[in-house]
Protein backbone atom coordinates (compact mmCIF):
# COMPACT_ATOMS: atom_id res chain seq x y z
CA UNK A 1 0.00 0.00 0.00
CA UNK A 2 2.75 2.43 0.96
CA UNK A 3 4.60 1.66 -2.26
CA UNK A 4 1.54 2.63 -4.34
CA UNK A 5 1.23 5.92 -2.46
CA UNK A 6 4.95 6.55 -3.01
CA UNK A 7 4.51 6.05 -6.76
CA UNK A 8 1.52 8.44 -6.86
CA UNK A 9 3.33 11.10 -4.83
CA UNK A 10 6.35 10.79 -7.13
CA UNK A 11 4.09 11.21 -10.15
CA UNK A 12 2.49 14.28 -8.58
CA UNK A 13 5.95 15.76 -7.97
CA UNK A 14 6.83 15.32 -11.64
CA UNK A 15 3.48 16.84 -12.68
CA UNK A 16 4.05 19.79 -10.34
CA UNK A 17 7.38 20.39 -12.10
CA UNK A 18 5.61 20.48 -15.44
CA UNK A 19 2.95 22.80 -13.98
CA UNK A 20 5.64 25.21 -12.77
CA UNK A 21 7.38 25.12 -16.15
CA UNK A 22 4.15 25.78 -18.04
CA UNK A 23 2.89 28.62 -15.82
CA UNK A 24 3.08 32.17 -17.05
CA UNK A 25 2.06 33.92 -13.83
CA UNK A 26 4.36 34.23 -10.85
CA UNK A 27 1.57 33.57 -8.36
CA UNK A 28 0.78 30.21 -10.04
CA UNK A 29 4.46 29.29 -9.99
CA UNK A 30 4.66 30.05 -6.29
CA UNK A 31 1.57 27.92 -5.63
CA UNK A 32 3.19 25.11 -7.62
CA UNK A 33 6.37 25.43 -5.57
CA UNK A 34 4.33 25.26 -2.34
CA UNK A 35 2.48 22.13 -3.49
CA UNK A 36 5.76 20.58 -4.58
CA UNK A 37 7.31 21.37 -1.20
CA UNK A 38 4.41 19.68 0.57
CA UNK A 39 4.69 16.60 -1.67
CA UNK A 40 8.44 16.38 -1.19
CA UNK A 41 7.92 16.55 2.55
CA UNK A 42 5.64 13.52 2.38
CA UNK A 43 8.45 11.33 1.06
CA UNK A 44 10.25 10.84 4.41
CA UNK A 45 6.95 9.81 6.02
CA UNK A 46 6.29 7.30 3.23
CA UNK A 47 9.79 5.88 3.66
CA UNK A 48 9.40 5.76 7.44
CA UNK A 49 11.32 3.10 9.32
CA UNK A 50 10.90 2.36 13.00
CA UNK A 51 14.59 3.06 13.68
CA UNK A 52 14.51 6.69 12.64
CA UNK A 53 10.88 7.62 13.24
CA UNK A 54 11.60 10.86 15.11
CA UNK A 55 14.13 12.05 12.52
CA UNK A 56 11.85 11.31 9.57
CA UNK A 57 8.84 13.05 11.11
CA UNK A 58 11.04 16.02 12.09
CA UNK A 59 12.38 16.19 8.53
CA UNK A 60 8.86 16.08 7.08
CA UNK A 61 7.54 18.82 9.39
CA UNK A 62 10.60 20.97 8.73
CA UNK A 63 10.18 20.47 4.97
CA UNK A 64 6.53 21.48 5.03
CA UNK A 65 7.32 24.51 7.18
CA UNK A 66 10.21 25.77 5.06
CA UNK A 67 9.45 24.75 1.47
CA UNK A 68 5.67 24.61 1.73
CA UNK A 69 4.92 27.68 3.88
CA UNK A 70 7.86 30.01 4.64
CA UNK A 71 9.47 30.27 1.19
CA UNK A 72 6.17 30.78 -0.71
CA UNK A 73 5.01 33.39 1.80
CA UNK A 74 8.27 35.33 1.39
CA UNK A 75 7.93 35.12 -2.38
CA UNK A 76 4.34 36.46 -2.24
CA UNK A 77 5.49 39.24 0.08
CA UNK A 78 8.30 40.16 -2.33
CA UNK A 79 5.88 40.29 -5.28
CA UNK A 80 3.60 42.63 -3.31
CA UNK A 81 6.48 44.84 -2.16
CA UNK A 82 7.98 45.36 -5.61
CA UNK A 83 4.50 45.73 -7.13
CA UNK A 84 4.86 43.39 -10.09
CA UNK A 85 2.60 44.73 -12.84
CA UNK A 86 3.18 42.02 -15.42
CA UNK A 87 4.73 38.64 -15.30
CA UNK A 88 8.01 38.30 -17.14
CA UNK A 89 8.04 36.86 -20.62
CA UNK A 90 10.02 33.66 -20.91
CA UNK A 91 13.27 33.57 -22.85
CA UNK A 92 12.03 30.50 -24.72
CA UNK A 93 8.42 29.66 -25.47
CA UNK A 94 6.19 27.62 -23.19
CA UNK A 95 5.93 24.78 -25.69
CA UNK A 96 9.71 24.42 -25.79
CA UNK A 97 9.88 24.67 -21.99
CA UNK A 98 7.34 21.87 -21.57
CA UNK A 99 9.06 19.76 -24.23
CA UNK A 100 12.43 20.24 -22.55
CA UNK A 101 10.90 19.45 -19.13
CA UNK A 102 9.41 16.21 -20.47
CA UNK A 103 12.70 15.31 -22.16
CA UNK A 104 14.70 16.00 -18.98
CA UNK A 105 12.24 13.90 -16.95
CA UNK A 106 12.43 10.97 -19.37
CA UNK A 107 16.23 11.23 -19.48
CA UNK A 108 16.43 11.21 -15.67
CA UNK A 109 14.28 8.06 -15.51
CA UNK A 110 16.55 6.46 -18.13
CA UNK A 111 19.65 7.33 -16.10
CA UNK A 112 18.08 6.01 -12.88
CA UNK A 113 17.29 2.70 -14.59
CA UNK A 114 20.92 2.45 -15.72
CA UNK A 115 22.37 3.40 -12.33
CA UNK A 116 20.19 1.05 -10.23
CA UNK A 117 21.62 -2.23 -11.64
CA UNK A 118 25.13 -0.81 -11.18
CA UNK A 119 24.60 -0.14 -7.47
CA UNK A 120 22.81 -3.44 -6.90
CA UNK A 121 25.81 -5.28 -8.40
CA UNK A 122 28.14 -3.42 -6.02
CA UNK A 123 26.20 -4.41 -2.92
CA UNK A 124 26.17 -8.13 -3.70
Short description:
This protein is mostly helical and 124 residues long. The protein contains four helices and no strands.
For the record, give the distance between the C-alpha atoms at the N and C termini, rounded to a whole number.
Answer: 28 Å
Estimate the strand proportion: under 5%
In N-to-C order, the SSE pattern is HHHH
- Count the beta strands: 0
Largest sheet: none
How many individual helices?
A: 4
Work out the oligomeric state of the chains in this entry. Answer: single chain
Low-confidence stretches: none
Morphology call:
flat
Structural commentary:
With 124 residues, this protein is an all-alpha fold. Helices cover 82% and strands 0% of the residues. The protein is built from four helices and no strands. The protein has helices spanning 2-22, 26-46, 53-82, 94-123. The model has no long low-confidence stretch (mean pLDDT 83).
